[in-house]
Amino acid sequence: xxxxxxxxxxxxxxxxxxxxxxxxxxxxxxxxxxxxxxxxxxxxxxxxxxxxxxxxxxxxxxxxxxxxxxxxxxxxxxxxxxxxxxxxxxxxxxxxxxxxxxxxxxxxxxxxxxxxxxxxxxxxxxxxxxxxxxxxxxxxxxxxxxxxxxxxxxxxxxxxxxxxxxxxxxxxxxxxxxxxxxxxxxxxx
Amino acid sequence: xxxxxxxxxxxxxxxxxxxxxxxxxxxxxxxxxxxxxxxxxxxxxxxxxxxxxxxxxxxxxxxxxxxxxxxxxxxxxxxxxxxxxxxxxxxxxxxxxxxxxxxxxxxxxxxxxxxxxxxxxxxxxxxxxxxxxxxxxxxxxxxxxxxxxxxxxxxxxxxxxxxxxxxxxxxxxxxxxxxxxxxxxxxxxxxxxxxxxxxxxxxxxxxxxxxxxxxxxxxxxxxxxxxxxxxxxxxxxxxxxxxxxxxxxxxxxxxxxxxxxxxxxxxxxxxxxxxxxxxxxxxxxxxxxxxxxxxxxxxxxxxxxxxxxxxxxxxxxxxxxxxxxxxxxxxxxxxxxxxxxxxxxxxxxxxxxxxxxxxxxxxxxxxxxxxxxxxxxxxxxxxxxxxxxxxxxxxxxxxxxxxxxxxxxxxxxxxxxxxxxxxxxxxxxxxxxxxxxxxxxxxxxxxxxx
Amino acid sequence: xxxxxxxxxxxxxxxxxxxxxxxxxxxxxxxxxxxxxxxxxxxxxxxxxxxxxxxxxxxxxxxxxxxxxxxxxxxxxxxxxxxxxxxxxxxxxxxxxxxxxxxxxxxxxxxxxxxxxxxxxxxxxxxxxxxxxxxxxxxxxxxxxxxxxxxxxxxxxxxxxxxxxxxxxxxxxxxxxxxxxxxxxxxxxxxxxxxxxxxxxxxxxxxxxxxxxxxxxxxxxxxxxxxxxxxxxxxxxxxxxxxxxxxxxxxxxxxxxxxxxxxxxxxxxxxxxxxxxxxxxxxxxxxxxxxxxxxxxxxxxxxxxxxxxxxxxxxxxxxxxxxxxxxxxxxxxxxxxxxxxxxxxxxxxxxxxxx
Lengths: 189, 450, 355
Hints:
The structure holds three protein chains of three kinds. By secondary structure, chain A is an alpha/beta fold. Chain A contains four helices and eight strands.
């Protein structure tokens, strides 16, 4: 989600200036592996598990996670992507952007959805994602996996699986990818 | 500054002095003061003494000219009083420097009978300028039967037109020209072939095509100009072309004059300054008949003024209530106000900033005062009281013009009852400071006195 | 179930596309190439939404959209209303008979009265060119031009472009999202028929030319505008047979049959003989060429019955794409912040919608 917010930050988006590399690529990979184990442990296997990545930052993580889960349990794991642009609560407050695709791999009724995002911040994106998921069927449960929890929640949302807890200042930015996690600032264009 | 004037409606004997200006008329330009007493010019000269009890109108830095004469004003009374009345039109005229206007006959009822003509002439008695009228050529302006031109001529009508439409039938126009020749009056033609123009709301060209608006081709006007020139040749009559708007029309009239035919022509200020590009926003205030045309038409009209092809600038002052000038273009009424902005627009369009070769102030005033006075039959030499020159014994009809005054056009502050001016919000250069009509200062320091 | 064909990359830094005035869609010129591209991309998302069992998202919940159609046209109005409803907006519709708008009650009065009830957007179809532009001057709401006289019909041009892009994607065997507007560069399009009176043609020319296509206008002399000066077209022609072998898209305009009654055309039959896409003419088209029509078709007039049903004729797809394209337009216009800055200057955080 950090990617999107950077694009939204005024004046018309800004430039991310990295400051500190918090996690390297291997650290991210290890975190994904650990989260995969936690998912299998918590749910006693992968029955009915569907992995859904939130556009845009959660998608590569979701696909990698699904890949790891498949290897671990030798079973196919459905994976998809969800764009919550039409469910945001700030439509009309911030400029809308051309959005990314939603592709849900199956009917979610009775499934256990693992929602994957790169950064958990205010919690509003996750709220929007829960609304969106509801339109695809009544899931049995929804669990949330994030690579970074940076604090500053504005809604009662909590993650089930966290790569790293990272307290941040409000004016900082967190950039997450499979290549690592970087803390930095946004500078206006 | 002028002293406080006496109350409304009273005739103004008494003395008026116009001090410190540059007099300009058909004899030329000279610094001079002008004194008017009992409605007549009594003295013209430099550094005159101020007569006792005189109202002094300061004219420093200004031109002092014979009052302007508008050949083409829509008074709207009778029938259209919500847009304008004789009184309000005359007030607007006076503020624009006009001491005479010719009212167009497309009133309701139209000016095709003595009754209506007398009504309007009567209303004009107390107006701030002289109100003359043009009678209709045909009954009801329907283009079929001749109107009682003889009867109306006996009431002093010198100009006849079906303005609002042109006389479509060549046979009818021929008979009208022959009849008018016998009466010594002039026929004015609103040149528009109704079939070619049908359905059009703006000039037919690149802009109308882009905007998706049905257009009126230049040929709709030129067709009737060419036809009437041939009818003049045929009948020996006299035609005055109203509001010419195309380069082709100018060329036709130039050739006709070269041949020695009795034709005259007028142009409206908006056709000297605005083009069809103004319609890009679909604002109906720019809808007018004939429509605003292209830059090359504007250039040709300006050149026609400089070359003498065009004899007069006539405002085609066309007031409309706001609901008629709002909303979709195709249902809006055509027409623009003009009396209070004509002078500034014409000086700008025809002067050194506007055209090449530039016309002098005197030349522009010729087009707005003494030449239209002659066409209207109101010149002093014809027994009238308009057009000057500014000389002892001449009627006291003057305007004082500050050529450099810049002012923003505020539709709410115009004397007209209507608001449809295309110049709204724009800044113009040149304003009438004072107007004297029959010796009475009717406009002092740009304000109408009654 | 497996994942879709490819994983989208993380986005690069890109400021939101400029959108001219931002509040209205009165003409295709309001969008420009970037704006058109943005609409097409957002439409992909709404095509997906429209395929869901519940084809509805809460994006415009609480907004009020009023359709004001002063021309008889049920289908387009239905398409717009469906689009608004699928975005969860409240929809009011005013089917104003144009006669009541012309006489007595003025358009301005109607619009201001309705706007006073609290309206976020007007969707206006009116027989007079420029009417939506005038309404936009009178009200605070956003105004979408659904067709004004002969002037423009921007959403039609957008759904036509979307349909072309969709077909090009299928032919290349890729997802629609893979096809950018570069695919339009050099595309040869012939627009055939009553160009003078066609708002579809005007918008279509602007949109296709903005995307780099080469547009040729084909019409009988009396139905070609008196001047195409300033129109971004590659050429004009009166000879349809000569143009057809070199086009990628043959776009047929509807002939209003009342035109063929002596004034513009001698007869409808003569029009069809010279400019109708008959089976013989359809065979002149290249293999891959598409046939398009804004609808409703006059079968047997501008398009032969059998040609209308050929696979290369994508008319039904155009209709089907209409709702998604209109959803995209509504979302992009009404989703913009109204007045003030874009919201980030006020609160220090990275914004309420962050993860």
